Batch of 2 targets.
Target 1
Amino acid sequence: MATDTISACTGSSLLQPISEIINLPLDQVNFVVCQICALLMACCFRLYLHPSKTSPLARHVVATLLGVYFALFCFGWYALHFLVQSGIAYGIMILAGVEHMHRYCLVFALAYLSFCQITRVYVFDYGMYSADFTGPMMVITQKITSMAFEIHDGMARKEDQLTQSQKLLAIRRMPSLLEYFSYNCNFMGILAGPTCSYNDYIAFIEGKPYRHRDQGSNGKPQGKTSLNDPSPNKEVIRKLATCFISLLVFLSVCKVFPVERNIDDGFIATTPFYAQVVYLYLSMLTTRPKYYFVWTLADAINNAAGFGFNGYDGEGLPRWDLISNLRITNIELATSFKMFLDNWNIQTAHWLKRVCYERCPYNPTAATFLLSAMWHGAYPGYYLTFLTGIVVTLAARAVRHNVRPCFLGSPTHKLVYDVITWASTQIAICYTVVPFVLLSVGPSLKFYRSWYFSGHIGCVLLAIALPVKPRHLRLKEQQLGLQPSSTHSQKHKAT
């Protein structure tokens, strides 16, 4: 009886023998196998259900049914939460009206996600099951709220009230139920995302990737993207190679530098502080390849289906980074906190920016970090990480605005600044995200105590000593600075 319960909670038990042979949890085996199957299905989807050969209706139906099947295979009946959350949110969109539905959908989707996360962590016993069905729900929550805000922008706000990006993403008609579920639960992104805009997804399904991103002022498609359907094969192979290397590094190195050693009493007592700093960097560095593996594989699946094409670069080569979730080189060589965040979990950063940061009238930085913490889950370590992230962000911004200009006088000074800020950024990131890995309050505070809360204290002092003008004042100054050149340009044209 107990075995049946565990099987029901972790999805299909079909691969149990493989799980036992390779000594990996069944939920992880199910996930990887489903993603490999999704990759194969994506290739078939592009070849046999190409927009030139079949209708958008058929593509929507196939993408949705495959997505639901993969979800049931991985998570069993817990996958029904995906449909329930999406279905209720769609009802809110229909019944609440375009004026207020974006707020109601945001509150509902986050509340439903939080309820599932809290019950998974604090109500059910960890030994009962290991599959985290709330992972896909996090991506679906992003899609539900993004769509609600984009419908509100497209149907309830005037054109002159929208920013350029909001105009690009605004949805001008209410999606059908099939389009909605296809967007939320398609097989390419149901297990690991990434989030994408509704307009981009519909353009992909209908075979019109240039429809809203590559139109001139006359409304006609322009540029190469409207003429070609480039093959994603090279890009898919490159990303699969990255996946293989990331997985290899993670399996071979991660256990050598366990994060928990940072709070080991013997390690703290006998290890010089500089060695603790180096070990902290190495232990956190080795946790990243698993994210590189999961997100790059998800990106490759979408590309294999033909989704993710983002025009051509300066050399005329196709770009397949429309929905990419990370840029590994920029992460590892980041010379600022912002640069790291801009290249890590990119689609989530876009979601936070579009839903919260651009729209919050007061303290958008703090509000964005708080929303991010709520979205990530119920573990206290998440909140400690994002609260720490607020002060680190403010300090990094203050240093960049006040100190960086002093080092731009010569290439040598700029190089010195880059080296110092690279080291500082990497240590600041590691210091910030330790609670994210440790999860609990006790171990997290023990780590910070072993560092005498030096990161928090230093960041607060920097933020106070190096003030930065509020964002609305900086934007106003920029606008005023552009006015003379704009006026001059108009006079020049007139003459």
Target 2
Amino acid sequence: MGMVTEQATTHASHLMSVCVFPSECVREFIKTMPVSRRSKEEREKRHIQDPASQRLTWNKPPVNVLVIRKIRDESLAEPFKELCRFLVEEKQMMVYVERRVADDGTLSKDENFGSIRNQLCTFREGYDDISDCIDLIICLGGDGTLLYASSLFQGSVPPVMAFHLGSLGFLTPFKFESYKTEVDKVFEGNAAITLRSRLKVKVVKEMLLPQQREQDQEPEINGLVPHRYTSSDAGKVTLQLQVLNEVVVDRGPSSYLSNVDLYLDGRLITSVQGDGVIVSTPTGSTAYAAAAGASMIHPNVPAIMVTPICPHSLSFRPIVVPAGVELMITLSPDARNTAWVSFDGRKRQEIQHGDCIKITTSCYPVPSICCHDLVYDWFESLAQCLHWNVRKRQTRLTEASDASDTEN
């Protein structure tokens, strides 16, 4: 089997995505267009981006494809072999897979797949960097495969084509039965894409020094006494990640309520007392946040959601803040226990007094390829996967019953 090399061309040279964040459009408009000289209709057209303009085109044909397969699912062995054979033999592509996938017993025992298996390029998560040598990602499985693919690219992410072969499939719009036709369409270009924003997260240890906490005499805000922080360079950054769904802060194994302070651009907003808090992207709004009572937001909306988990307050409702602001979460001074944080369900760790979690919108979104278009795909997923607004239809009244109701 081939190993990861640096000879492959970066996907950035092959890919040209003609789509930008709506917030960037507004910013550019403010810089270049004199508002007073434009009509209301012209200003609205410049501010509101047409979703149909988010298209994917190729400057050069894609060469290197990363295939992500759901692990520990034997039912995906045959689809995986079919796809790899199609990409290698018919499309003449360089196919990258995880080493543990290539070393799977079902593949090594298949003699007919041996020639294809020997041509696969393998890598190991955490050891081999493939971020600069992939032009396209193809996922086979459920939503977890797309989340895992996102975690492999902490910078720019190649376009992702996800096939629904898992349990839920909210983020996987393609059906594998027609994979050859769908892959050909993507290779031809001009496909609709959804830019799924990610969160840039930093875990900073010992951000708040003990002597500063003791001498803190800041005025109260809504009954809360904010911490006094040192400069942004203080503390030790122990972890920095790009998160696609959500950052979850919870009370962990403790029986006490979680008690953390939430800051927005350096200002104390509120204290969260309950089981925890979820900070999510619009993509993550249909995941854990939806189960906690948050609204579902289309992934094209530039925003960050803050959702409490079982808050000890009847008036604590989920909120949506603009993309680009910096959220900071710390333990409250009077917290009885530590907190625990996880990122898309992974890398769970403990947060103690003096530590903080900084969260903002990442400049590296995940370009997810649509099966139809970014509006239809999302609403179809709501109906098919979450059964959104699905109910038994009301029957039409007959003329006789209608007349009797009027008389009554």
